[in-house]
Amino acid sequence: MAELERQQELNEPASAEEGGVPVKPKKTKTASKTEKTPPVEYPMEQKQFFSANLLAWYLIHRRDLPWRRSRNPYYIWISEVMLQQTRVDTVIPYFHRFVDLFPTVEALAEAPEDEVLKAWEGLGYYSRARNLQQAVREVHERYGGIVPDTKEDISSLRGVGPYTSGAILSIAYNKPEPAVDGNVMRVLSRYFLIEEDIAKPAARVGMERLARELIPEGSAGDFNQALMELGAMVCTPRSPQCLTCPVMDHCSGRLAGREETLPVKSKAKPPKPERRLVALIEGEGENAGRILIRQRPQEGLLACMWELPHVELRTPAQGGVHGALAAAEPPGPAGGPEPLLAAADEAAAASAGADSPAKRGRRGKAAAAGSEAPAAWPGDAYSMEQLRAALAEEEHVDVLPQGWIADTNHTFSHLYWDMKVYRCRLGGEGGAPAGQLPYRYRWMSPEELERYAFPNVFLRVLKMYAEEQGIWGK
Question: For residue 435, what pLDDT band results from cuts at 50, 70 and 90?
Answer without folding.
Answer: low
